[in-house]
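#struct-pred
JK: can someone run the complex with adenosine-5'-diphosphate? inputs below
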Amino acid sequence: MFGILKKIFGTAQSRALKKYAKLVPLVNEWEVKFQPLTEEELRQKTLEFKERLKKGESLESLLPEAFAAVKNVCRKMCGTEVNVSGYTQNWDMIPYDVQILGGIAMFHGTIAEMQTGEGKTLTASMPLYLHALTGKPVHLVTVNDYLAKRDCEWIGSIFRKLGLTVAYLTNDVPPYQRKEVYASDIVYGTASEFGFDYLRDNSMAMRKTEQAQRGFYFAMVDEIDSILIDEARTPLIISGPVAESRQMYDELKENISSLVRAQRDLCNRLATDARRDLETLNLLEETAEKKKLTKAELETRNEAFQQLWLVSKGMPRHKTLKRLKENPDLRAEIDKWETYYFGEANKAEKADKLAELYMTVDERQNEYELTDKGILAWNTDKGQTVGQDDFVMLDLGAEYAIVDADTSLNEQQKMQAKVQLRDEDARRKERAHNLRQMLRAHLLMEKDVDYIVADGKIVIIDENTGRPQPGRRFSDGLHQAIEAKEEVEIQGETQTYATITLQNYFRMYDRIAGMTGTAMTEASEFLGIYQLKVLEIPTYRRCQRRDFDDEIYMTEREKYNGILKEIHSIHAQGRPILIGTESVEVSEKLSRILRQEKLEHTVLNAKNHVKEAEIIAEAGKKGAITLATNMAGRGTDIKLKPGVSELGGLHVIGTTRHSSRRIDRQFRLRSGRLEDPGSSKLFISFQGSLMRRFASPRMTSLLQRFRQPEGEPISAKVLNKSIETAQKRIEQRNYAMRKHTLEYDDVMNNQRKEVYAFRNDLLHAENVGQIAEEMLQTAAYQTVASQVGPEGKELNAEACKTALMKQFPIRFEDELFKQEPHELETKAAEWVIAAFQKKLMVQKQLISMYRPDLAEGDRLHSILQEVLRNLMTRRADHLWQEHLLAIDHLRSDVHMRTVGQKDPLLEFKHESFGLFQAFSEKMKLEIAQDLFRFEMRPQQPPPMSEKLQQLASKTPDEA
Ligand code: ADP
Ligand code: MG
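RT: done, structure tokens with the ligand placed:
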């Protein structure tokens, strides 16, 4: 086996591997020594290791023995049965050397790239065990609930045998049990369960005992690319309805629709005219004899192609355009105009041409822009607020200056005028923002591709899995904009109560490690964002899979015929086939075709993980045909059933290329696990979205060159390369989007940490009274400071007194104000605190008068503690939510400023910092007020229920 390990030495990334590989024999030597131990003696090892750690030994020096203990327990379990998800399984696993190697790499905080079927689940057990010896929280993160439970039951038996506790965290674990789950040495769960628990613990728990988690030490992330890359684009959000909504989608929607309609009518006309002209010139039929055109005819022809080019700028998905582009000759002619206008010399002419449109749409950049014509049409047609330009924002600075210069206004009127201006500014910005989002909804979001309409609701379709994502919403008002577009009820604006990106959640752990079959393509992102290195672990046996070149077709129809031909020919050999689709819709379509062909098959739609796992485990049977969305059953491997290897193993067919190379690879890896034979092939058409968005004119000319008769695939290595380039471009764009989300969240991360830390202090403090006094002190300082002149010296005693009395409901003696400002600060604070202590005393007396039973021992004290804790936590939460709402608004505001050449992120950083300072001051002042405001009253007897009243009014006889 070491032969395999040897061959990888020498490459650049293998230096680390070489170092780790030296430890493998050490682990094995220890394991041999452990073999004579009884189970009980082995279990004692755990205690011994823990002791040695306490005495100062490092985890690293314990590694060989700890890993050996895991390996030995596996050996001892062989032949026994374990219960996994309701089935009994025979334990038959002892870690291979490559798995020990992978485990060592994971221990050192790298991402181990190990192919599907290599046994990552078992591999992870070794670093998990070692880290859990510290007694600190160790979490294994999986992609779905099914796997969390399965792996916990399966691999968990190792930990239980070694005397550690292990538990799983699935969506159906009720809140009151979660604390117990987290108390285990090792917890298996999904990223969102862990993340939401963190948010709940820090934004909803009102006392220490309600907090479930106990910290973040080591996270081992399974299928790490899926979790940190695919899922990382949408942050975790706890939200609720907003008190007062600013949105105006309803009032805008009709006018937006009519503007978009104007553009559609225009493009329809252009396309129909062009098509008719080309038809008359007999240019549409591919086979038609090309006759020589007259000069006038040539001109008509050129104009027609130019018009089609214009349609491609205004409505890239126009049906007629799409159909004409199936013909490579016509496609090339249209692309010629693209090349022509790309030239610097033709810029002005291009602008003139584009000015005929109302807006231009760029699918590649995922952007659109209104032309002057569009802006004019909007501003004149909208039939309201005549003369107002929705695309020009107020210059608040200048407007304020005008108000200030107006001598006819007194101070109060000036203030009023400014408040009005500010409100008007906010209204206009919101309107412009709504407008932009609605245009985006119309021009760039496609029904049944990006979302579906179900039961009067807009449901997002996950780009990677093709799964509908009920409950999730597009952010930043886009969801509402789509609701307006599709004429369904527009849901109220929601407000964020708590939010975090998965990236920032995982950054809280002292150590992270990961494993997946596919991480290499995103290695630089892992390093850049998480400081995680990717290490390719050699396979146990040589991979036997054969990846065929893609089959590329002009049209979807031809592509499906090609796929069908492939299925027939492979199926005839008896080999099992797995067909991966990009969406549920495509799965269903293919299923219909297969039914017509009388081919028996199973469809897997990624709706039910448990069933999914069962079905996919059957996909390795002789003659099986399984249809699945790309990611369905990820994490469950397909074992070949008897007789299948001899036939050539599993064949996987991809019905498209995904926008990320990693996901294509993940899919191919489904076949050829361990030393199994197998093969894979992907089918693509030029009508697919990848090609539509990213095929270059160069590709069109290649197409013309390698053109095949109808129905034949084009196979050319060059094309494969171009397709990869297109994928890389999308990957980069998606990376930029994730970075963008993260950059904004980073700003919030520090604020969130600070607030959560304060909140945790409140929840955990033995004596909250002390925090209360600190709040009062700061509030007193702040109030005095607000009355001191810029020199730090002069002080208006009267004003200061008023301010203090406004803030605190107590009397301040005049003597106090005869001192220097900094002395006054201290004295005022002492004064306030003394008054507060007195108030607490009075409260205690009052209560013990009414409820003598509470006066015993320190019960009264702890009740008071809880009251103070609650009061401060509530106020902090409330203001924090307000702050988050302000931040939401700021985020959309700053994007409006890109017009002024300003960097929105910088603006955002700057202003959110200011907002946070204001929040933090306000919080102290308001908490200080609350502390004087609360009143503990003896409880009134509860009102009698109606029934009791009736009973009470009746005489004993009647009753
Ligand atoms: P991965 O997550 O890497 O795709 P899994 O952890 O799901 O792979 O394991 C794949 C299969 O390999 C499982 O059925 C498991 O039983 C088997 N396996 C893993 N390690 C071993 C081993 N050391 N000996 C025998 N079988 C193993
Ligand atoms: Mg796995």
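RT: quick notes.
Residues 954-959 have pLDDT under 50 and may be disordered.
Residues 92-96, 99, 114, 116-122, 637 surround adenosine-5'-diphosphate (ligand 1) (CB under 6 Å).
JK: thanks, will look after standup
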